[in-house]
Amino acid sequence: MNRRNRCRSSVRSCVNSGFTLVELLIVLVILSVLAALAYPGYGDYVTRTRRMEGQVALMNAMQQQEHHRALHHTYVAFSSAAPSAGLPWWSGNSAAGSAYELEAQACPGGDLRDCVLISARPGTANVDARFADPECGTLTLASTGEQGASGSAGNSAGNRAQRCWP
Q1: What are the C-alpha distances in Å from 110 to residues 37, 67, 89, 106, 139?
Q2: Residue 140's CB: how many other CB atoms inside 10 A?
Q3: What is the per-residue pLDDT across 22-38, written as a single tens digit (0 to 9) for each?
């Protein structure tokens, strides 16, 4: 039995064997709506993940600072312009792929022997400049344990630190 004879005997199966243009357009509209709803959540997830990268880098740098202080009785200042041996000034595996640029300096009004403040600035020219975190901005960690953020998350510095530091 050839195809022509099968189609004559079963016209319904020959006619409904494909998709119409209207059906394809409906599927495309549904997929577009789902993508439009999912993309903002995905962007927020990426930002929170990169923020966690900065927090981990700050804690690792502080741990290295405490080790240096135990051996030399002082903290060490560093930045991308004046790097220090063993203390990376970026947050990720490489400078180009990192979200944050790290910098360590003496606490305001203090001496480097007693207190160090490490800051992580997002998306500078020395790291991934496409990354921005307006909610938390620059993350900071002091050797006194004080955590901070300079972004727009909340009205007070304490509220920002609570939202930006879990």
Answers
A1: 49, 20, 22, 6, 19
A2: 21
A3: 999 999 999 999 999 98
Beta bridge partners of 118: 104, 141
The per-residue pLDDT for range 89-128, each reduced to its tens digit, is: 999 999 999 999 999 999 999 899 999 999 999 999 999 9
**b vs e for 143-158, b when ≥16 Cβ sit within 10 Å of the residue's Cβ?**
beeebbbbbebbeeee
To the question of pTM greater than 0.90 for the whole model, the response is no
What are the phi and psi torsion angles at 138 (to 5°)? -75, 125
* Neighbouring-strand partners of residue 140: 119, 148
User: Distance between CA atoms of 31 and 8, rounded to whole angstroms?
Assistant: 37
Percentages helix, strand, coil for the chain (3-state, rounded to 5) are 45, 15, 40
Contact between residue 102 and residue 58 where contact means Cβ atoms under 8 Å apart = yes
